[in-house]
Amino acid sequence: CLIPDGDLYNSINEGSAQVVTGDIETWTESGLVMKDGTEVNADIIVTATGINLTVMSGIAFDLDGDAINFPDTFTYKGMMYSGIPNMAHTFGYINASWTLRADLTAEYVCRLLNHMTTHQQAVATPTLRPEDANMPTEDWIQDFSAGYMRRMMHLFPKQGQGPWRNTQDYKLDKKMIRRAPIEDGVLVFGDSGNIAPAMDSPTLTKVA
């Protein structure tokens, strides 16, 4: 969200506008009262409940009858999930044009499908390697303080190191997504009867 001409900041500095954060207790004739007792006078009130982010629109997925719990997985290049075959999603940039990342994702998935067709492969599974076992972890999105994002990160896959990243950095993503080879030692390929076994999740070491 941008304020190109800075008029809101000017209004705040002049004292003609203010930002109040908290929970609403009740409405009044002149505005509202917060739960801490603060009275807020307002000429216009625009109600907005915020959004609750979900992974894959909240659809319940299972793999061979076992429910998939996305927080137990690691993101692979910001588009696939560790231990889950043949599943990719698109999530753009929160700090740049959404379509820059969407285009990279679509391009990569097409490269992957063409590779699988050429080599007569039916399954591609991002698979954690032994060297990934103790990698430090981060939330799926970093350096973005919006409440609607922070309060839902526990529902999303984790980030790690190497290809287990959701960088939100176009220059890095061009190297990791566009230029890196499809066969990187992380994607495990097979036919429909040869789904790569899921490795136990690494010990989670939270990065502050």
Order of helices and strands: HEEEEEEEHEEHHEE
End-to-end separation: 26 Å
Q: Structural class of the secondary elements? A: alpha+beta
* Uncertain segments: 196-208
Q: How many helix segments?
A: 4
* Share of helical residues: 10-25%
Largest beta-sheet characterization = 3 strands, antiparallel
Residue-averaged pLDDT, rounded? 88
Task: Report the radius of gyration as a whole number of Å.
Answer: 22 Å
Number of strands: 11
Number of individual domains: 2
Strand order, largest beta sheet = 1-2-3
Note the beta-strand portion.
5-15%
Question: What's the overall geometry?
Answer: elongated
Compile the SSE list and pairings:
Layout: H1 7-14, E1 24-27, E2 31-34, E3 39-41, E4 62-63, E5 66-67, E6 75-76, E7 80-81, H2 98-118, E8 123-126, E9 136-137, H3 147-150, H4 170-179, E10 187-190, E11 205-206
Parallel strand pairs: 9-11
Antiparallel strand pairs: 1-2, 2-3, 4-5, 6-7, 8-10
Helix pairs in contact: 2-4
Entry keywords:
4 helices, two-stranded antiparallel ribbon, alpha+beta, about 210 residues, single chain
Task: Provide an overview of this structure.
The chain has two domains: 7-41, no CATH class; 55-206, no CATH class. Helices cover 21% and strands 15% of the residues. It is built from four helices and eleven strands. The protein has helices at residues 7-14, 98-118, 147-150, 170-179; strands at 24-27, 31-34, 39-41, 62-63, 66-67, 75-76, 80-81, 123-126, 136-137, 187-190, 205-206. The strands form five sheets. Strands 1-2-3 form a three-stranded antiparallel beta sheet, with no helix packed on it. α2 (98-118) packs parallel to α4 (170-179).
